[in-house]
Amino acid sequence: MWMLLVLVYGLLKGTREIVKKKSLERSSVMEVLFFYTLFAFLFVCPDMKNAMGMKPSWYFFVALKSFVIFLAWMCSFKAIKKMPLSVYGILDLSRVLFATLLGTVVLREKMSTQQIIGLILVASGLLLLKMRIRTGKNVGEREETERTKRADAKELSENIPPLMLLFALASCLLNALSGLMDKLLMKDLNSSQLQFWYMLFLVSFYLIYILVTKEKIDLKKSLKNYWIWILAFLFVIADRALFVANGMADSRVTVMTLIKQSGCIVTILGGRFIYKEKNIGFKLFCAGVIITGIVVAVL
Fold this sequence. Notes:
mainly alpha
């Protein structure tokens, strides 16, 4: 059951990437981040009665998890803004490795030979996909001139500030750390408690950031952006599935990390059928490698 719940999380996560792209066409990054988090919190408010009764010390740990995610998302957006997305995508692959490392070191989870093979296949499929983008053969792109290739090479080698590389890696590590914290917190909390307080603290951190930095927010425009509402709904459902899975005693962070990668398949198909992207064959091949890795790991 926990594998099925994590699969639901992965597929919804992939769907969220498509919806996120749609929402960013109408609103700024900070508007999307703040309002979809706020809307998601409003969606879980009716379940507030089931979120009460935590020990005082657990509020600190849930707030810490929220702060970890707040930092992770801020780092990732700063990195994406300053570096080619293809390079960020390659670095983002390290999230799988960080999560696996944390699961084996902190939780003492042992990986079987099948799970190791599955991890290698998942990593290989994602790396092949990112390498395809890195070489300039991504969706809908025509044959490049030598001048363009040299410019891209210069961009990749010279124009990425070292601090941005650190932000990208920090985001991957922080997201992996959040997944580990979910597993630890769900030993003592129920899914309603973790989701309600996690969302409340996250909204608070975004609000504090906006007030301190005096970020401009268009309230009317954001409320009319229905993609943000859809994004918030998907976020709530996906996180609830993941929290319930983490609460099951036999669930394992290492295997969950592999299953989560199923979301990339949805993203690829969404690009093909929604955005009419081309050159999809190679990406589907990469998706096939990833699916094979997931099947091998969970058998």
